Amino acid sequence: MISVEMRPLGPTNVFHDGRPKVRPGSKPGALNIYDLRESWVADLKDPYDNLNLFLPRSGFQDFAADRGHTFLDLKFDIQQICYDPVMLHVAQAMLPALERPNEIRQLYLDHLFLAVRDHIAETYGVFHARRFPDQQGLTSHQLSRALEYIEANLSSDIGLADIATAGNASISSLGRGFKAALGVSTHRWVLQRRIALAQRLMADPKMPLSQIAVACGFFDQSHLSRVFVRQIGTPPATWRSAFD
What we know:
With 244 residues, the chain is an alpha+beta fold. 48% of the residues lie in helices and 16% in strands.
């Protein structure tokens, strides 16, 4: 469990597998990492506010395998205060999305998971290097299959695992392959294709925006509008009226 403190917290008595430890007081941005195969109990006497993310050990094993390594452990001491500005930024960026949980799509969650996993692994991970080449990126055939799958499933809540399976690739290779070949993340590419589909459908003046939103994989019309404004710079209704 990756825990990011969002407000100041005083010294806290923590019991790790029944052994007492004292975690010093901290400011916002303090990071805690807990191995949940072990027992953790905290005597919290002060108000607290934190964001917790759960990462499976298999995620770190996959991270290591893609780089020709073996994952051993995460190096972290609960009794040493660690401030991680990257994780604080991620936590702050997540809060608006958590206020609208129905709009969170699988692809967004997948990319968030990978970003957090990669940062934690690179910053705190302990690995053993193995002697075989790192297989990076996608072949042209794999990329073509992945793109075809995306185009055929824009209305669905697809995830990275779905796209990787369609391209017969690992999730990490998929991410590197999209960046190398297309210059954007898989998540950004899918958003761009959904907006492009919405623009094509808006050519039909009889098709309501609410129906277009669902056909393009958005939760509702307001969800489409927010993404459309970020991508195009104008609301979909305004963009559509310019072509009437």
